[in-house]
Amino acid sequence: MHEASIALSLLEKVIEECINNGCSIIKSVKIEIGRASGVMPDALSFVFNAIKADTIASSASLYINEKMLTAMCNKCHKEFSTEENYIFECPHCNSNSFNILSGKELNIIELEVE
Ligand SMILES: [Zn+2]
Question: Could you tell me the distance, in angstroms and rounded to a whole number, from the CA of residue 107 to the centre of ligand 1?
């Protein structure tokens, strides 16, 4: 499962960040995931909660913000976004030439430590 390795590297990253800041307990982790990243938030949460036991993040809550997919059309130069996981064409001019601006990222946006 794709989400298992992502959850593991996320956990390692927040633990390292916490220790680097001289803290010993992680209380919450907030991340954002683009809808086009191919990561299923429920699956990621599930794995994170399973592997956090016996670490300094054992009582950490994971909050996931889903980010919409946005793109810029190369033909009409308008920006557009979608709730879907994929974009097939520009909704303004139907061109299929566009650049993805966001929607593929996975970022830690907030870390609450003690
Ligand atoms: Zn367009």
Answer: 28
| Cα 17 from Cα 62, distance rounded (Å) | 15
Domain ranges of the chain: 2-67+102-113
CB atoms within 5 A of ion ligand 1 belong to 73, 75-76, 90, 92-93, 95
Residue 46: strand pairing partners:
none
Cα–ligand 1 centroid distance for 68 (angstroms): 18
Residue 23 · residue 91 · CB < 8 Å: no
pLDDT 10s digits, 32-50: 999 889 899 999 999 999 9
- DSSP at 85: S
CATH class of 2-67+102-113: alpha beta
Question: Do residues 28 and 17 lie in contact, with contact meaning Cβ atoms separated by under 8 Å?
Answer: no
